[in-house]
Amino acid sequence: xxxxxxxxxxxxxxxxxxxxxxxxxxxxxxxxxxxxxxxxxxxxxxxxxxxxxxxxxxxxxxxxxxxxxxxxxxxxxxxxxxxxxxxxxxxxxxxxxxxxxxxxxxxxxxxxxxxxxxxxxxxxxxxxxxxxxxxxxxxxxxxxxxxxxxxxxxxxxxxxxxxxxxxxxxxxxxxxxxxxxxxxxxxxxxxxxxxxxxxxxxxxxxxxxxxxxxxxxxxxxxxxxxxxxxxxxxxxxxxxxxxxxxxxxxxxxxxxxxxxxxxxxxxxxxxxxxxxxxxxxxxxxxxxxxxxxxxxxxxxxxxxxxxxxxxxxxxxxxxxxxxxxxxxxxxxxxxxxxxxxxxxxxxxxxxxxxxxxxxxxxxxxxxxxxxxxxxxxxxxxxxxxxxxxxxxxxxxxxxxxxxxxxxxxxxxxxxxxxxxxxxxxxxxxxxxxx
Length: 434
Ligand code: ZN
Hints:
- The protein is of the alpha/beta class.
- 29% of the residues lie in helices and 26% in strands.
- Helix 2 packs parallel to helix 7, helix 8 crosses helix 9 and helix 10 packs across helix 12.
- The site of zinc ion has 6 residues, from helix 7.
């Protein structure tokens, strides 16, 4: 089970590739794609998915029961992680033929974890389509270490270990290599190094690339760590580990559930969810409305409201594990540990959707699945983060819970989580979808 997760994490080097991996698994399991541009004919027991922007996906296993009465069991997670996005006209030409890249920070990553690592490039490009409104999308992963962000030597900054402010524009530019004058002239003719790398990889002409959305990703593979291999380390554990836990649970369901099971993977959580593929968009609501209308052509609206009122959402996004070096940062009585099971997230100022109803439902679900659970509450003097749950409930009148697994170094280029926690969460999600 953990090997599957590690392979998925390695394959999902950005939001687009994570969604492509989930789509492939859904296709293998007999799910059919529904397009928002088509008419829908939904049947009970049917398996469908809807993609949005190639970076969000909504898998639906329609229940055998009554849609309105039995409602939906929804698990949500997000496909994006902090990274560096490559700007247009990104090439910066330096002394000795050194070419580096102008990049922008995506989300709130821990910048210095990105130094001195082998980096590769992935994302999507646009090629000419049938007409100008429909460019053709191609996903790309260079899959070899083509860049690195070298740190300044300590001799030029003796105070580096006493705290070092970083500028994304100055300090974080990845270096691609050094090239001869002729190579650089050729590179410029071909539209720059980025388009050349991608075009070479795909066997196309650089001038065919209309636009790109590419990011840098840490090239090292994920792996197990610890005396007893109790931890796993990888990039993008937040939140792909939760997305894949949801997928594993959905795929092992026998399709006999009365309720309709939905796995909703949104994009852009790390930048506030405010895009057409984010949790603040109407996308999930639109999908559920169309399910209701297709299942009940006479009273679709009524069915929609009843189904939503009979539903429950697990908003799954990783939590902060107690760190042995920083006890003072944590709440004295509620600090989840790695290996302690899934974490219920609670916040008095409603940063999370969890209330006592949601917590009680989830705790009972854990008991039913035979899994331990724990709580995360912020240290009262520390402001915490927020996540998908509340943002989704501003679009859909849902009750639910915010939960996640406890991890270290959230938003590092390499995060650490617990093997048994992943297994436990899959058990709980499987129970939820039953
Ligand atoms: Zn997250």
